Amino acid sequence: MTALIEFQGFNKYFGSHQVLNNVDLKVRSGEVVVILGPSGCGKSTLLRCLNGLEEAHSGHLRLEGEELLTRATDWRQVRQRVGMVFQSYHLFGHMSVMDNLLLGPLKVQKRERAEAQAQAEALLARVGLLDKRDAYPRQLSGGQQQRIAIVRSLCMNPQVMLFDEVTAALDPEMVKEVLQVIQGLARDGMTLLIVTHEMAFARAVADRIVFMEAGRILEQSDPESFFSQPRTARAQQFLDKFSFVESLPKTMKKELS
Amino acid sequence: MASSAIELLLTSLPLLAKGAAQTLAISALGIVFATLGGVLYGTLATLGNRLLNIALQVYLELFRAIPVLVWLYLVFFGLPIFFALSIPSFWCAVLVLGLWGASEVGEVVRGALQSLPRGQREAGLSIGLSAGQLYGYVLLPQALKRMTPPTINIYTRIIKTSSLAVLIGVVEVIKAGQQIIERTYESLLIYAVLFLFFFLVCYPLSAASRVLERRWAHT
Fold this sequence. Notes:
The structure holds 2 protein chains of 2 kinds.
Chain A: E1 5-14, E2 17-27, E3 32-36, H1 43-50, E4 58-63, E5 66-67, H2 75-81, E6 82-85, H3 97-108, H4 113-126, H5 142-154, E7 160-164, H6 172-187, E8 191-195, H7 199-205, E9 208-213, E10 216-221, H8 223-228, H9 233-242, H10 252-256
Parallel strand pairs in A: 3-8, 3-9, 6-7, 7-8
Antiparallel strand pairs in A: 1-2, 1-4, 4-5, 9-10
Helix pairs in contact in A: 3-4, 3-5, 5-6
Chain B: H1 2-45, H2 50-65, H3 68-83, H4 89-114, H5 118-126, H6 131-161, H7 173-184, H8 187-215
Helix pairs in contact in B: 1-4, 1-6, 1-7, 2-4, 3-4, 4-6, 5-6, 6-8, 7-8
């Protein structure tokens, strides 16, 4: 079986700085891959290359076996198959929720309004926001806006969804409602590529963890073995930082007195 | 005296009205031209094409550095000499005001587009919008609020600057006034009428600009 997405010997530079270094990554259809790594390791750039928001320099990138790094690539076509959700939602502020959802289906895919709207309403109901269909983004909380942004991508019926730190800008109590939506998509068998700093979520939702540093993939493994016994010292170090709160001494008061 | 002033106003009204119509026509056409050209300029300037940006920069600097009056002379007297192309003075004025206005409006549009969060562009692209759809449905509608108040102020400057057309022979409202003054020597009265005319045309515009600016300040 060929991979749905395949990065091969993939390189990307910002100026003289190499942000992606010989990346090899295959994602099968229906797989949930979570990319972890310290800030600036290139994980967001990797997602952005996949829908053409960043241009790669060399290597191969294939979607369903079809090479994307050629001049002939129609990125508008590719983007309809690759949904992307951003850290700061980026809903269109001058449009109601429903208009946000229908812009792509009606103007890009030229679908029938009735059919597109029925789908949008079903998806809104699924994320619990059907009553917000006529609201404007500024009237919604961050968590609500992010769920709408996810629905906006889903309305295009993509083959894969990319999530770029989608809970990083949210208050803690809103993180859950967004993660639940993503988990629901994973359970439905949708192909997901997720960049996140929510370790517990990564462990729960991922079929595979990809750990990156300085533009390279250092290791790929199933979540249980990655979190319990990472193979590289760098990954161990990375995980230690996240568990440092748990390891704080509980007898702080005594030490002070 | 009072009755003769009214009499003078009544007799000169047709000529003044004709001049006013010329002023308004030149201004209105110049504004339409400036707006369309400005939106085009602003859009092109935010595409990130280096060659295009250089060309637009040259255009902008030419209209910033060279007075409108000189442009009027260049187009009116220069085109026939260098290109054997003669344009009626009315259309010369429209053309120059439009091109000058487009450079001014264009900078406002560019600024408004650039002040939008970059994510709006990326979100639009990520659902597969073409460049035209991205600007038409997402970016320009959101830039509209930021660009309208300063653009209206440019409109009032276009209206006032249209009076320069007198120097290439257009009988607009000021020229009409001067013709009446030459015959009657009633300069104070006629200039008062001209003052009132420009005030009545421009003040509502700048008032509207202020109201919009306040209303949209926090959205």
